[in-house]
């Protein structure tokens, strides 16, 4: 074989490798979207928060899994938004996770003092309502490790979405304050946005019940 022929084979092989790598990358993005057309998991944590780095904090926090996506599309404003579940890093199609029942979304960050005071009350409220209301917290800072350690410190075990880019809050029109709570009706419409801190489960229940009337 001539030298030019060998170079041709090398170039063809290199192109084949690049094409194969591209297909693998595209396949990973499709699978990360949880099967929702056009949806991709947003990277919403620090580069330092690798699977290995998060393993210990996740074990300490021992959070419950996030709600699985159902067959219904859920709130229109949240369709196409996929974030990670802080418990295990699984992708969560937010709209589908909230479909079919009233929901309470609590927006917070690990460095927020009033949030730390409110989270135990939110956990108490979730225990009271059981399966009647979907209660989710949404961590709005890229430091996922700090969020997990804060929840472990507080002894709060709530399903938590990691949304360091504030995509959920932006989609719902939530002011850039924390804590803030969004109450959604069973049909996915926003009943009320509550940019305030609660100190007891009774306060939360009263505010949610009033919003859902």
From TrEMBL:
Predominant location category: other
KW Disulfide bond (keyword) present: yes
Keyword Nucleotide-binding: no
InterPro entries: Redoxin, Thioredoxin-like_sf, Thioredoxin_domain, Thioredoxin_ResA/DsbE_sf
Record keywords, A-Z: Cytochrome c-type biogenesis, Disulfide bond, Redox-active center, Signal-anchor, Transmembrane
Cell compartment(s), UniProt: Cell envelope
Domain (Thioredoxin) ranges: 71-213
Pfam families xrefs: Redoxin
Protein name (database record): TlpA family protein disulfide reductase
Organism: Candidatus Mycolicibacterium alkanivorans
